[in-house]
Each structure stands twice: as structure tokens, then as C-alpha cells.
Amino acid sequence: MVKIPIYLDNNATTKLDPRVLEAMMPYFTEIYGNAASRNHVYGWKAEEGVDWARNTIAKYIGADEKEIVFTSGATESNNLAIKGVAEMYASKGNHIITCTTEHKAVLDTCKALERKGVQVTYMPVNKEGFINLDLLRESITDKTILVTIMHANNEIGVIQDIEAIGKICHEKGVLFHTDATQSIGKVPFDAQRMNVDLASMSGHKIYGPKGVGALYVRKKNPRVKLASQMDGGGHERGMRSGTLNVAGIVGLAKALELCITDMPVEVPRIQGMRDRLWKTLTKELDEIYINGPDPLEKPQWRLPGNLNVSFAFVEGEAMMMGIKDIAVSSGSACTSASLEPSYILKALGVGEDLAHTSIRFGIGRFNTEEEIDYTAAEVIKAVRHLREMSPLYEMAKQGIDLKSVAWAAH
Amino acid sequence: MTSGTFPSRMIYLDNSATTPLDPLVAEAMKPYLGEKFGNASSIHSLGREARLALEDSRNSIASAIGADPAEIVFTSGGTEANNHAIKGSIFAAVKSGKHFDELSAITSEAEHYAILEPMDFLESLGVKILRSKVGGDGVVEVEGIASQFGKDLTFASFMLVNNEVGSINPVKGLAGRVRSASPNAIIHTDAVQGLGRMDIDVKELGVDLLSLSAHKIHGPKGIGALFIRRGVKLEPLLHGGSQERNRRGGTESVALAVGFGEAVRQMESAKQASREQVRMVQEYAIKRLAALPEVSFNSPKDGVDGILNISFTADVLKRLDSEALLIRFDMEGIAVSNGAACTSGSLQPSHVLAAMGKGNEIASKSVRVSFSHLNRTEEIDRFIEVLQKIIRD
Questions:
Q1: Which of A17, A232, B11, B108 could disulfide-link B113, Cβ–Cβ 3.0 to 4.6 Å?
Q2: How many CA atoms lie within 13 A of A306 on its CB side?
């Protein structure tokens, strides 16, 4: 028997791995010093933990330890990267390129900069969620200072070709930031090889703690300079002040270490469960649509544990109620309280009707095949039940083209 | 990772830098570092469970400072709260159509760097920054600020308790003075060092914004809060997501917030006993130190209990090396500091002591001891013993 509820919302947040908690515990108990206290052993012990974390993270993302800045999470990392560059390079230019399907932490930051006079180009995406590299190249002007394109999308799991994007940016002499919150630890990431100048990451998406993240800031070729967004004390080489969250920082590094060492086993296992779920659903249900790249045809371009499906003729909220033993999301967590259809699906060209029926399944480390089978059975049952009550579904089955129906206003 | 243990008899007298996590706080956090791991913005049961815990903590913090829960925004700590307060106020004024060079802010010379540096940044954008002097006691005089600004002041920030010397600013009086001269100014206080050491009531103080940090009150590092009085509009510091009523983007740090809430509850429930213990230790330390002819006090007599900053008479100062002074304490198993942790490596003379009119020698050769309710008078005896050894060697 599977234990309910089943957690399939691992793109929203993940459960802290007990091995990570174990690594953090000493920093919640005896090693409680302020890592900035330079004149006693409490401070030194805390700093040792931070140094270990910095080295560990650097090693696993192809960076130098001096290129890691600790933050309170990916939102802060994204804010620091984008505003930090916009401020520092204001004399060089005032144009930033991003894309329409970025996380709100990037989009809202760009919008805030627009109000201050920065020009922002929002690249469109195709129906799978990819940006067009030729269009990107054409969009870069002599005023462009930054391109910020996420590595993997939080809702539809599409993985951008950031190595190619980075190459274009470097050819054009423009800085490249990627929000790698969803990708680092789940797919290979190497800042050097991928030509990345700035990369955001978060603890709680990789079985680490909430409240901690990091920003990779390239030190040479080119040396990236940032205007700090939190001043006071000059921690983190002046880029981010504030007493370091030592336990969280150690947890972030331990979480990444586990992801990287387990990756050869975990990626095929998690991807296998995702594919099994998708195959079962497509076998048993008609009128369902994948959002983002096809998991079976383009697995290398989709996060291994992500599946985003629109179930036509089924309303997303009703669906979530129908499978209430299973924790999934009908959009990203930060906007899930609103009943607006996902702006990301809209950007893919998904119609409002289908966008309203989408469910994101985020499969992760602690899920089992039994849970996947249970989930598939529950989803199939719920969809069939909801469609039985749907006159639209019945009409579609009878071959009526719903788009041709002129609905009477009432 | 780090290994090894501490020397057996370590004495921790650096509680203004940070405090040990209360085991009860760690206990309260544990479920949220385990099975209750939901994203507080998710609408499924795990998310709702996290949301409830988050709001419960918010309620505890709000009630401890006489605020409404909706007026509390969680941050990553005191530094973020201060940056949010200062930049958020100024940027909100800019958003409403003002230019930087039409704006002005007042603070004091003895503030924490998390106030002074954001102020320097705003100055570089054209904002007029007034830096009020402090007296020899480290306190900003209410009448002293009166002449410094007119009716168009944008922002004022005066810390409640100074982190280096423990002086207490008359925040209520300062806020009242600012309010009467410049009714539209937003008034902030950095209360990071005041929380736990004294009662705080935002209505009584009359401030619009107030910064707090958890790790100074035996809570976890990485979490703080900013009180934002209802109706006060700030530009967010962190954009992205609609968390914290659109005031602070980012996935809510539930376990840390729960830890903060529990630390506040523990602080409140043991308030009298804790403060009595700290007062007893403080009075004992003062008595012992006063008996040493080589020691002089930098902390004012009417400062807060728990922070004591001392220096030495001229002949001793001449012999002492500022770096060796602190290393000796560490070698003897006592953790003290020479001021704020964030500048503890620099050996620069303290800007706080300089603002209080102390000479360079004193400002660079001082010792701060700071207590929590976990300290005992026996630890003071040991501290005095070591101090005497250092002075007389």
C-alpha cells in the first residue's frame, strides 16, 4: 500500500534529505558562531563550515570558490544578478534581454528595472518553450548589457540550450545570467563549459533547506562586477552583506553534493517514473496534451522529473480536488494561489481552455514506482469521472468542432 | 566539513554577534526540516500546513512588538530588513515622482553598517544624508536633531540599542521630533539589539518601520523581520512572486520562520528571569571591572543590560597590541570581540567609539563582552582573571 498523501510537487519544493539535516545539525547546536567573528574559535568553526560549502559548490558547478556568493535563495540571487549588473554596467548600456517564460523572480525584477528606464526585450518561445537562438543574436544591440535566460523552466521543464546561448553572448561581449534553480543538481551544469557568467541556485529545490541559495559570479574572462543590493558589513566580498546562515549554507552544499553523486542512478530512475506516468496516461486517456518538449522524444531537453499535462474538458481545480491524495500543482507555487491560467502556458500558445486544465507533476527523490502507478490510476479515474459530467467532452466525442459553436450569451 | 571539538572550558561572551540556538527552538523547527516541508505558497495540504506554521510565527512576532500580523514581513535577517526599510522608502518616493536630489534622510554616526552603507549608497544617487552626532554616551539627543532638517525630510533611522556599546536611543522622542517637524517622513528603527533586552512596542515608539533578527535571541540565522506600519508604502527590495503580500518575493523560509517565532515565544515566556540573570551578570561584571584601576568603561551607565564595552588607561593602552588582545582571550578559551562581528577582522578603530569622541587608541583597543541569560558569574570571574593576566603581562 502506498502512503498518502503522495507528494508530486517537487518543482515547488522538496523534502529536506535526512543526510542534509545531519550535516546541518552541528551548526544548529555547538557550532553557533557568527562566521564573521574573526577573533575566536566559535567564529572560525562557523567559517570553516562556510568555506567547505563554498568549495563543494564550486567544485560541482565548474567554478572557483571565489565565484560563489551566498544568498537567502534563488529570488535574491536573481535580483542580485540582474539589478547588480544593470546598476554596475549602466554606463555601458541599458538593455537587457530575457524571455517571456522566466520565473517571476526574473520577470518582476526586469519590470522593476523598466520603471527605472532600463529597456527590456522579452524573447518569445516556440510551442515547446524554446527560444530562437537566431532571434536572440539579432536582439543583442550595442546597448545590451545582460541576457538572462533560465536553464530549466519550473512549470514545463524545458531545458534551454544555455551553452549555445552563452556562446552567442560571449561572442557579442554581453554578460549571460541563467536562473539554474530548477536544473542544478538535476541535470549536468558546468559554468565554464556552458559559458555562463552568472547563475542562480536554491537549496530547497534540491532536497536542501529553504532560506538559502547562491549566485555564481564569474571572476575572469570576463570578470563580472555587481552592485550589491544588500549593504552593511561587506560580507561575501562586498557583494552581499548580512550574517551568514551557516547551517543553511552547509545544507545547500551537502544537498548539491548528494544530487551530483547520486545523479547517475537518480536521473534514470526519476525519468523512468516520469515516462511511465506519461505512457500510462496516454494509453488510457484521449485528449490529453503534453506542455513543453515531448518527454519520450526529447528527454535531454526536459527536466527528468517534470511532466506538465493538459487534460482537455477537465477543469484544473476540479481535477486537483479529484486527486486530493496527491499533491500536485496547477501552476507554479508562487502564483498558485491565483486562479489565473499560467502565463508560461500562454506564452507557448496553449489556449486558455487547455491552460486551465493543466497539472504539473514534479517527481523526485523520495517517490516510488508504486506511487506513480497509484497516481496514474487516480488521475485516470478522476479525468473519466469529470468528463462524464462534461457536455463539452460529449459534444467533442460526437464530432462537433467546439470552436465552430456560437455560444449564446447569458 | 569541520571536525573536532571546542576546548573544554570555552566561555561565550559574544552574544551581540550571535547567540546559541535554543534547543527548544531547534525542536520546534525539526518537523519543518522533515515531514512538513511544503512550500507555503502551494495550495495542497502540505502547502497549507506550512502556511499555518508561518502565520503562527508571524502572530507571535507581531504580538511581541505590539504590531498587527499583517504588518510583519519576513526577511533573511536584520541586514535585509534595514536595506529594505531604507531603500524601500527612498525608492517608493522616487516611484511617486520625486528625484533623488529632492530627498533627504537622517541617521546617526553610531549606527550599524547595515544602516550606514545603504545611506552611503543613497547619497551616491543624490539623496541628502544627514548624520547626526552622538554624545559621549553614544546617544542621539532629541533636541540635537531639531535644527538639522526642515519639513520635507523623507526618512529617518535611529537604532534602538547600539550593538557595540549598548547605549539606548530615545527612539520615541526622536520619532516624535521628526514627526512634528516633518509629518511625511518615514521613521525607522533598527531594533536588532533591542529585541529581548528590552520591551518593544511599535505604537509606543511611534515608528513606521522596525528591523528584527532571530539569531540575536537564540533563534536561527538567516531569518529576520521588518515591521511595516499599515499604510506605509515601500518598494520591495526583492522582486518576484507575490509572497508576503507582494512585499518580499521568494519562497518562504518556513523552518527558519518557525524558529524565529519559537525564539520569540521562549523570550517572552522567560522574560523576567532571563533579564534578571543578564542584569545580575552585568552588574557583577561592572563591579569586578570597576575594581581594576587599568580599566575604563566605554559603555554608558544607563545602557542596556548585556552589552559592556571597556578599554584601558593610557599606560596600558601603550603596551597593548589590539590584535594580540583578542587572540589572548581566545587562547584562554574566552570568546569576546572588539565591536561588530562584520568588521572584527579589520582592526580598524570602531566608528561607534570614534563618534562617541574616544581617541584612536581607545577606539582600536576596546573589548566588548555581551551576555545572554546562559552566562553565569563564574564565567565573569574567569574573564576577569584572564583580563588581569593580559593587562599585567
A1: A232
A2: 32
Which triple of cell numbers denotes residue B152? 520635507
Confirm or reject contact between B127 and chain A (CB < 8 A): no
Helices (H) and strands (E) in chain A, counts: 12, 12
Residue A110: active-site member: no
DSSP class of residue A193?
T
Let me know if A220 is exposed, middle or buried by CB neighbors in 10 A (0-12, 13-18, 19+). exposed
Cell numbers at residue A364, please?
523526485
Q: How far is A162 from chain B (nearest CA, A)?
A: 22
- Quick: pLDDT tens for A228-283: 999 998 889 999 999 999 999 999 999 999 999 999 999 999 999 999 999 999 99
Range of the domain at B343: 11-20+270-392
Contacts of B154 (CB under 8 A, 6+ apart): B89, B90, B93, B98, B103, B104, B105, B127, B184, B185, B186
Contacts A–B by Cβ distance under 8 A? 288
Give the C-alpha separation, B224 to B234, whole Å.
17
What is B110-129 written as a DSSP string? Answer: TS-HHHHHHHHHHHHTT-EE
Contacts of B213 in chain A (CB under 8 A): 243
pLDDT band at A387 (very low <50, low <70, confident <90, very high): very high
Helix (H, G, I), strand (E, B) or coil at B299: coil
How far apart are alpha carbons A218 and A249 in whole angstroms?
20
Q: How many other C-beta atoms can be found within 10 angstroms of the C-beta atom of residue A410?
A: 3
Q: B122 and B263 share a domain?
A: yes
Give the span between the Cα atoms of A177 and A166, in whole angstroms.
Answer: 9
With CB atoms and an 8 Å threshold, state whether B241 touches A78. Answer: no
State residue B278's pLDDT score.
98
B79 CA to chain A: closest CA distance, Å? 5
CATH number of the CATH domain containing B321: 3.90.1150.10
| C-alpha cell belonging to residue B136 | 559621549
* Å between A137 CA and nearest CA of chain B: 27
| Residue entry with cell 541628502 | B128
Domains in chain A: ranges and CATH: 6-11+264-409 (3.90.1150.10), 18-257 (3.40.640.10)
Tell me which of B314, B324, B331, B342 is the catalytic residue. B342
Q: Can you give the pLDDT at residue A409?
A: 58
Residue B178's nearest CA partner among B159, B203, B206 is B206
Each residue's pLDDT tens digit, B144-164: 897 888 899 999 999 999 999
pLDDT of residue B59: 98
Reported for A259-265, long-range contacts at CB under 8 A and 24+ positions apart, including other chains, are A259/A184, A259/A185, A259/A186, A259/A206, A259/A207, A260/A60, A260/A185, A262/A365, A263/A185, A263/A186, A263/A188
Q: How far apart are CA B374 and CA B267, in angstroms?
A: 13
- Option in B33, B44, B343 nearest A9 (CB): B44
Q: Answer yes or no: do B260 and B280 share one domain.
A: no
Closest CA to A98 of A166, A141, A146, A134: A146
Q: What percent of chain B has pLDDT over 90?
A: 84
Is the ipTM above a cut-off of 0.85? yes
Backbone angles phi, psi at A396, to 5 degrees: -60, -40
- pTM of the predicted structure, to 2 decimals: 0.94
